[in-house]
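To close the section, here is one more complete example, presented without commentary so you can practise reading it yourself. The ligand is flavin-adenine dinucleotide.
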Amino acid sequence: MTDVTRTARRTAADTEPMVLAFDVVVTAVQHLTANFRRITFGGACLEAFGVAGDTLDLRIKIVIPSAGRPCPDIAGMMAGGAASSWYQRWLGLDAEDRGAMRTYTVRDSRCAGPRPEIDVDFVLHLDGEGRGGPASEWAAAARPGDRVCIIGPNSSAAQCTTAGAYGGIEWSPGLAQHVLLAGDETAVPAISAILEALPADIGGHAFLEVPDGQDIQHIGTRSSVGITWLARGQRPHGELLEAAVRDAVRVPGWVSLSGAGAASGGREPEDVDIDRTILWETPQLLEAAIVQSTVNPGRPSGTQPFYAWIAGEAAVVRGLRRYLVRDVGVDRKQVAFMGYWRKGRAELA
Ligand SMILES: Cc1cc2nc3c(=O)[nH]c(=O)nc-3n(C[C@H](O)[C@H](O)[C@H](O)COP(=O)(O)OP(=O)(O)OC[C@H]3O[C@@H](n4cnc5c(N)ncnc54)[C@H](O)[C@@H]3O)c2cc1C
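Output:
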């Protein structure tokens, strides 16, 4: 994925790499719900893992070794090379030695203590014969002692005053006091961590679509964001999520949600061919594109009272993007739309 190279940049001072490779071991495995398994990773190296502040929707890469093979030596590939060349070297390995790289969210991290650990909640998307993608199959069988490599933020670079914001966190509501969070099961870890970090003066809605009623989990939050779980059952993926968002953010006039005045529709957003590219549109990326172009910037992102964060299966996210941007007229600079996975397609790399 391209964000591997994007986040592998160095700090302004060019002294500290923004990301490091962490060779970690599974220290605990917990069946959370019918379709979620929490895997705790530990290792002294995780002392160097972290961001300045809450992890929110912090994403990491997990390199899963092929069965019976050791983890590729990503730390060795990173040492001494240009900030992103390790990725090309990793891609150049034989498939068996390379393993599989997948993207996950840090559900919780305890890296400052004597036994540094992070938790990752894996969705087990397996068919009736227990077959899924490499990450899902690995998570279903994982046991304490198993090893993977995690690529994630270098805490000392994150604390450095010259460091730019780490590219692995997208949640960025700015001054918004009304928020909309919507996602499927792959976004549950991120939405949960965001809700746990929200201050008391934030309101809005969080919609979480999960495969089954038994996947509903407790999420603590000081905010007054209303949390709604949607159990999919046999319905098509995203149907309940889309209906819930349409109901919460109506056309015309999303005044009740945003407090920002009624909107009367917006422009059709450019189509994203989700078969060829990753659907990833965030205020930060739009802002950067506007700065580099001559397009009228309009109101800068982060200055409006409403902010939305949408993640999940790419076609569902694309449909929600069209609804919010074109039909409702929500400013694109106030919404992060992220395709976390694509139906029928393995993650690139
Ligand atoms: C920023 C980010 C954060 C993410 N955080 C998490 C997280 O915390 N927890 C989590 O479980 N996932 C998370 N995901 C999604 C995860 O990366 C994908 O589901 C990934 O494809 C799983 O890898 P795999 O090896 O199991 O399947 P792949 O080899 O990538 O895919 C194999 C097949 O399985 C299908 N598939 C993939 N994911 C699913 C799914 N969830 N349900 C049904 N079918 C699926 C694919 O369409 C494909 O046909 C995140 C993704 C991103 C981009």
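Once you have examined the tokens, check your reading against these statements. The radius of gyration is 20 Å. The chain has eleven helices and 13 strands.
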